[in-house]
Structures are given as C-alpha cells and as structure tokens.
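[job 0412] stage=complex_fold ligand=iron/sulfur cluster status=START
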Amino acid sequence: MEILKESGQREVFCGLTSIVWLHRRMPDAFFLVVGSRTCAHLIQSAAGVMIFAEPRFGTAILGERDLAGMADANEELDRVVTDLLGRRPEIRTLFLVGSCPSEVIKLDLAKAAERLNNQLQGRVRVVNYSGSGIETTFTQGEDNALSALVPLLPATEAPQLLLVGTLADGVEERFLTLFERLGIGPVASLPPRRSTELPAVGANTKVLLTQPFLGTTARALQARGAELLSSPYPLGVEGSRRWFEAAAAAFGVTPLHCASILNPLAERGRAAVEPHRRELEGKRLFLLPDSQMELALGRFLHRECGMELVEVGTPYLDRQLQEQELALLPADLQLSEGQHVEQQLERVRASRPDLVVCGMGLANPLEAEGIATKWSIELVFSPIHGCDQAGDLAELFARPLRRRTALAFA
Amino acid sequence: MELTLWTYEGPPHVGAMRIAASMEGVHYVLHAPQGDTYADLLFTMIERRDQRPPVTYTTFQARDLGGDTAELVKRSIADAVDRFQPQALLVGESCTAELIQDQPGALAQGMGLELPVVNLELPAYSKKENWGAAETLYQLIRGLLKHQMPEAGSSKADPARWRQEGRRPRVNLLGPSLLGFRCRDDIREVRLLLEELGIDTHVVAPLGATPADLLRIPEADANVCLYPEVAESSCRWLERQFGMAMVTSVPIGIAATQRFRQELQQVLQLDAIPEVADASRMPWYSRSVDSTYLTGKRVFIFADATHAIAAARIASAELGFKVVGLGSYSREQARAVRAAAQELGLEALISDNYLEVEAAMAAAAPELVLGTQMERHSAKRLGIPCAVISAPLHVQDVPARYAPQMGWEGANVIFDSWVHPLMMGLEEHLIGMFRHDFEFVEGHMSHKGEKPPAPTDTNEAIEAAAAASGIAEAEVLSWTDSGRAELGRIPFFVRGKVKRNTETYAQERGIHAITDEVLYEAKAHFSR
Ligand code: SF4
Ligand code: SF4
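[job 0412] stage=complex_fold status=DONE, emitting structure tokens
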C-alpha cells in the first residue's frame, strides 16, 4: 500500500479537545489547561454546549505578568489550583494539561504536579500531560492523558483483561456483559469511571485497545509487563467480532463457545446495517485526517457497507497499532498521512466523492460546493463501538445521503 | 494567571479573523499551531458560512521549533498569495507564535510582495477578540489609506460639501462584521433609514467590503460608527487624519433611531427631515393595554457595551421595565456602560467572569434576562426567561429570517423577542384570575390531549419546584397540609416562584409553618 505523506496546513484540533470526552468519563476529575485564551476558546468551541455552570475543565490563562516573569508562574499556578480545589471539594484528580504556550515558555508541569502532590498530601492527586497543538492532534490528547496515568496504576500479577480507551458508559456495560458470557474476566477499564479507582497492571494483564490512537499508552502498559492483544478495532460487526475473538483466544475460550455467543450478535448487527448498506453501497467515500479512527471507519464502510474508498487520510499512522486494520483494507487504497489541506481539498473536488468525513471547519463549505459531509467529531462523542452499534454507525453515514435525496425545493 | 471556565471573547486574532472573513479580497496568514484552526468553525458553524474563512495557518509543530519557523512563515505567505490572489494581505500570529518571535509581519514586508501587506501585532496575553477586530480594521484602513492622507494642517472636510458638489449626501457604515449580533440585517435596516433621509450609503465595512472599497472611504461625507466595539478607533482616526465627521448614535430603539436621524441631519446639515408616521409598531404595541402587565418587570442586562446600553434605555423608557442590573464584558467601553447604569441609579457590572455575572443575576432576582449566550445558560439554570441581545452567540442566534436590531423594524423585532419569553413565563394576570378553574389544575388534559408536563404528586412537585428554584428548603420552614394543598393548585410553571416568594416572606417574618393563609398573605404582599 502506497502512502502519501503530506505536510502543510492542517485542519485538525489539538489534543486539548480530548478533555471534552475525558471529563465526562471521570466525573471526579478536573482538567486544568495551563495556556492562553486561545486554548480556553478552543475547548469551549469544541464542546459546543455550556450547560454546566462550573464545568470540570478550565484554563489557567497566562497573562503578561506571567510571561514577563513579573509574577512567578509557579506560584500563580499554585494559587489558581488552591482556589479551584477550595471551591470544588469533590475533585479527586487534577489533570494539569500543558498547551503550546506553557511548553514554549518551558513551564514545567511535571514539577508543578510533584510540588502540588506534596502540598495536597493525597487529598487530591495531581497528574500532568500535554495536549498542546505543537505536539498532539485531537485524539492524541487522550493517549497522553492515559499514558500519564500508567505509572500510577498499582501492580498486580493476577490475570485480567484491561480495556483501554474511553467508551460510552452504556457500551462499556454491554461489553462487560459479553465478556462475562464469554467467560473472560476480571475485566478492568482505563480510564476508569472514578479517577481514584485506577485499574492494576502487570505481567498477566492482557490489554485490548478500544481506540486506535492510544499508542503511547499501549507501549507504557507493555513496559509494565502487560501483553498487548492485536486486533482490528471494535467498529462494525467484523471489527467488533474480531476484537472479542482476540480476547477470547488470549483467554483460552473455545472457538465453539465464542461463536455461540458472538454469532447471534453478529447476525443481528448485520441485519441492522443492511438497510443502510443499501444506501451506502457503491457510494464513494473520502475521509479527511482527523481522529485517527479513519482506517477503522474506512474498513467498516468498505467491507460491510460496500462503499468505495477514494482516499483515507489519517493525521498520523501508527503502523503497529493499525497493522490489523491495514491488512483488511484494499491493497490499492489511497492512504494519506499528515495534511496539506489545500491540496487535499483539491483532490476532494477533483474526485467528487459522494460523502466526505471531515472536521467542523470544512463541512459547510464542502456542502456548499455540493458535497455531502459527515462531521468526524461526532464519531468520538457517539456510542459507536460494538456489534450492537453497527447499525447506528452505518446510519450516521447514510443519513447525510438520505437527507440529500429527501430535500427538494423545486 | 487567571482561571477561566467559559469566556465571552476569544483571543485577539479571532477578532482579526472576523475582519478578514467579513471582507472580500483579504487573506490572513496566521502563524499558529494546528489546534488554532478550530476558529474556522466559528464561521462555518455558528455563522453557517458557506466558505472557509480566508485564513492560512502555518501550523508549526514542536519539531519545527528547533529549525526554521521563519522559513515556514515565508513559505505559507508565498503559497497563500499565490493560491488566493488577495488584494490585501494581513499577517499576524496567535498566542504561541507571539512567544517565539518570528515577526511574521516583518518577514512578509521583506518579501517584496506586490500587494498591500498589513502587519498585525495583537498582544494575545493582554487583549481580546473585540479589541483585535477593532485594531485589525484600523490597521487595514490606515495601511490602505496612508497614501491618500491630506497634508497636516489642511482644512477639515466639510460634511456639507455634497451641496456644492450637487449630489446627495453619502455616509459610510463602519463596524458590521461576522459574529457580531445581527449585523447582516442591521445593515439593510440602516440603509433604509438613510434612504428615508435622502442619504446614500457609500462604503459598508468590513462586512462585504473589498480593500478597493476601503480606499473609497474618504469620498463620503461622514462615517457612521455603527458598532463602536469594532469601528470606534477607525472612525476616530478618520476624523483626525481626514477630518471626516463621525456619527455616534447607534440606532437601536425608537428614541435612539430618532436621535440617529437628528444627528445625521445636524452633521450633514440636511434640511428638515421627514417625519415618518407609524414607522414602527413598537410604540403602539408597548402602549396597548395588553402590555400593561409589562410594567415594572424586573430585567437584568448583560451584553457587549453597544447592546447593553441600548437595551437599558429601551427596557426602561420604551417598554416600562425596571432595569435591576446592567453590565458588560467590554472593558474598552466600560465608561459608557457605567454612565448608562448611573442614569438608572445602578452600578454597572464590568466583568468577564460569567460566574460573577450569574451571581449578580441571581441576586437581582429579575423576571427577564437580556444577555449573551452565556447569560442564556445562567438564566436557564436559574429558571428565568432570557432573550439573547448580543455576541457571543450560538448558531440559533443567527436566524434565517430578517431580524435586525436597528431602526424601525429592529424595534419591532426587539418588542417581539423580549416580550415573548415573558409570555412564556406566562400571562400571570390571567392565571391569577383563573387559577381555581379546573383547566389550570394539574393533571388536566390539554385540548391537544397531552398531559401538561407537571409532576402529578404534589409533594414531588413542590420538591421539584424547590430544586428548580435552586433554593434548598430551609430547615426551620415547613409546609402544612393546607399550605401544600394550596401550592399544589398553583399552575406548575409559576409554582417555583410562588413557593420561593412565600418562603422568603415566611422567613422574613419568622413564620415556621406555612399554611394556605401564609401563602395568600405572601401573594398579596408580593403583588403590591
Ligand atoms: S443549550 Fe442552547 S444555547 Fe446552549 S449550546 Fe445548546 S443549543 Fe446552544
Ligand atoms: S494549538 Fe496550542 S495554543 Fe492552540 S488551542 Fe491548542 S494548545 Fe492552545
């Protein structure tokens, strides 16, 4: 497979964006970005809704005084943190999130976390990671956040399955039920629902990633002795099934038992996909680089929904983590890594795809050019994992097409 | 360092983007990391723009920092000029690039480009979005017009020169921009106002203008400063350098629209201006008997300075509300807001901390909130009806229909959009009158056959009302059966308020057991 590597202007959020879903997963944690007004505005714009008076994330905005060294930025940070924790006693874990400005001025958040941990004496745990746009794109923020937790995980020698990556609570529950039926257990999750209940890790831990963008975390877990199971990601019937099978094989579940549990699920999943497949079949799809889920989505839409892949873009290609996805994609796939948004849009225009998966900044302009779009950000906010969600996942892509045919103004 | 959860304004380069995206033929090269591209969605989503904003981001990464980011800037500029062929180029940086000091503006100027290049220096760590927009418009106008500047000491341009030149007077409209509040519709409405007076609209900027249009600014007889947040510095500069008269009345509301007309008459030395009878329905609607119940309604106002000041005047003088709080996040215009508050016997709240605003709102106990989308959320939490009157806005504040704020039609729109949320809070005089009628008793099926969304159990309802009112039940207070029963008869949509009032009343008087009688006394007390 040939890979087109591009560099130029990107149209991708930075890693801070992950806070939008991470804070919902761990309601007892607070995410404090140390950055600029831009960072605050990014999260606010990406989050879209502001229904919470006091959300569980915020930005410590650096001011001129901090930069000119007139105020000691470390003291200022301690003051902000003390105020915040005083007002929000329910917070158990505080994530200090680095941004481009904090990195460029070399504000050492690891030291700050250490200092604050000493001060707080276990009342609140302070963890730091970077979500900066000079180092991370979009979903890499979650990878950095989770990998920052890895050193804090207690050790265990007990055999277990560890699911890594944020899942919608409902999907997670469903998965746990299925693992139980398969006879796999105990099963733990990272991130956990309560930030204080961190899973343990050790030599008998088998790690199954729920998302393809967690390379740093996976490697950190491997360094703690865990075994990384290789599988396609649990999107669509095929991916989900293979994902469960990978766990089953690792836990010595007989193929017969595995099939008896998964077959009915897969059948139901395929039936749910079927009406959407009819709409998607033969339609041409262009995935712009955004969430790193593009390969798995492309694989599902091609193999289970019959879509033709014009181009699959990813901001970054982790060959190890994407190995199984790559194997399932057509050999002549046009795959691109990185971005030069203007050139890529030229390819979009030239190829006139039926559907483009892209970020929110590009969607309406493409629609105005007559090209149907799907927002990629929805895919990280919606419950789309598992056989049971395969129909819903297909529907997300079928809807824009259906809408186009439904509308008439003449 | 300052903790911010939600912000009213973005960083100053977003202000610059608003100017660039409002105009045609302008391109902005922004030295910024990839995440900053989020700002595109403000335009393509909130404003539903069908084009990307004309912005090229250099999107430098950590690995570029050791190398030559200056080269990257130059490459981006060259590519952007080549690809988009703009008539004028803005070059600037966002917060992160400001720290690495590549000086993109200076780099651009050294490239020998054959188009006007404006170097934007917008201090990201001390300034905000509106300031950035104003500064960008000013720098752009200045950069383009500097060759036309009259000699120092030459006589002021005569705003009545249209007479000698045998033509109609003409003015520029400065300030309307994307992500401003209803600018698109305001322009149309103000054009109509000008037309009524026989005045031509010359240049409208930045919205819809090209750099070539900006070059024509000095041809007009005066500048109308429609949105001071964005246009004041430009208008002042044009006044100083070109001697151009400046019209400062902002025509939001009936009286302000009249003042706007009079100011134009004065500045341009027009003959008598035509009276327009019944230009707006708003005065009659406000006088009509149906509006009596609006009298003294308590209203809390928080917005950008332009809309906050206008709203305070309209609310108090034209709708007969009682303004119980007035404030703005526009520090640059704080003085004008303070003055407007003083006229109403209030102290203005100047803050960009929405929690502070929410606390002031709660303390003022208003019946209506006029604010930004931030106040919409606060008001929702407090259970108070709200109308949005200013940026920052949300996609639903950019309506498909024609909905100006300025001029005669603007006044109509304002009447409808401020009174409607109050009606939703419901026509209490009617409710008071009919409150024992069975239709209002909960559990009643409406004519649509739907149950009203009221909890059916009274105790539950009371608790829900208490929760909604955000007031924890004081331990010393208890509701007797008779009190509870009476409260249960009150329509659910005002129950929370009645309960709150009754408890305040009881607390103030040291009453511990709330009976039906106490409820009636409280009701009598509060309806005075
Ligand atoms: S709650 Fe309303 S105003 Fe707030 S984000 Fe949602 S739609 Fe917009
Ligand atoms: S790209 Fe950098 S400066 Fe911009 S929002 Fe992200 S972390 Fe902040």
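The longest helix of chain B spans residues 407-424.
[job 0412] exit 0
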